[in-house]
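Glyceraldehyde-3-phosphate dehydrogenase
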Amino acid sequence: MASNVSELTTYMAYLEGEWKKSSSGETIAIQSPYLRQTIGYVQAVTQDEVDDAITAAHNAQKEWAGLSLSARGEYLDRWADELVKNSEEIAQAIMQEVGKGFKDAQKEVVRTADLIRYTVQEALHMHGESLRGDGFPGGDQKKIGIVERAPLGVVLAIAPFNYPVNLAASKIAPALMVGNAVIFKPATQGSISGIKMIEALDKTGLPKGLLSLTTGRGSVIGDYLVEHKGINMISFTGGSSTGRHLSKQTTMIPLVLELGGKDPAIVCDDADLDVAVSSIMNGAFSYSGQRCTAIKRVLVNERVADELVSRLKAKVEKLTVGSPEVDSTIVPLIDDKSADFVQGLIDDALAKNATLVTGNKRENNLIYPTLLDNVTEDMDVAWIEPFGPVLPVIRVKSDDEAIEIANKSEFGLQASVFTQDIDRALAVARQVEAGTVQINGRTERGPDHFPFLGVKASGMGVQGIHHSLLSMSRERVTVLNLK
Ligand code: G3H
């Protein structure tokens, strides 16, 4: 599956069930964010190869959809087993390629295996419905509607760098389980992890052509894939600007988008500050804040702001900073451009008189955790998603003001509210425009069987295992007209 070139591996693309070199003769160098060097090469797949992969996918899909649910599930269960068996190697790839701490990378692989197994079980336990014609005024009792789920055809799964295995499998597994074929396009940084994950799938003996993995340049195959007439559904996780672009490019095909966020932690004046501090720390800084669901701003009642900020400061200064190989919480960002972007947000806030509580130190793409207080609405960091370890604190006078600032954001992924009064928590939760509001907990996608969605610029459609099975299939209605 791989060949050595100058001690580095050149990975093959997985096209039509074979590991192949691209006919382009070109490869893409994959950089490690913390080793700051090339760690391998992946194939730069061509548009012709995309065409062939999609044709093969359609051919294989017909037979696949004819298999029983349990037969499809057996392949997926074997995939989960293979992932667990190879979890060390896959976690190593994730760590090197996207700079995620090794233990977190291992957790990602195990979480993925659990997700796949749950997807199988969920699909096995989903059932259709039947309707009586005479349920409608003037209806005929001899008419019976049978509603089942049917696959859509070929699903394009586009995964981000930050969960190169989990957020790929959370699209691939439901797509396959409901009878689709898949074209999988990993993020460039994330391709090697994606390849390792598909090597595990390939070991299950999956029918040839049912899934192809197209690594390549976005400029060559990105738009081409998305606009391809052979694609019947797209599931994308990534930035909001790309999501917007996708929704303009596609016509008349279902699209599920998981995009950016600016998740607020609303801290009321009666909050248990121990709970708030530990949730905010974990929510804001794990994996250097490179999570769509990271806490990206704190809206704290001014009566408890000094106390909260001083407790956060103490914790931020204890965060481990350095290498993912020793499981540091703060690791180098995915690339230098991302670090420049985060630094720009910090610089802008400080120029506009935010208070630097701690941080604002940088070594290449390693940004030290930075806590900013007295952030005001004229500062970019109040609104823009950094995808890095900077946490702005905005002081508010009331819950209403917190809700107003929370909702002024273009994003609406998740939010947290910290209070010991459940009525107050629910009142805030019901007014915040977000897919999910966490009461006294950090913002996060899991557990993976919960519905997961963003509103406004944070997404379209719903994920989570059950909803992904629904969005990757359609109703098939058959009507019995009895004599
Ligand atoms: O980055 C986007 C992910 O969906 C976040 O997942 O909340 O499990 O870290 P997570």
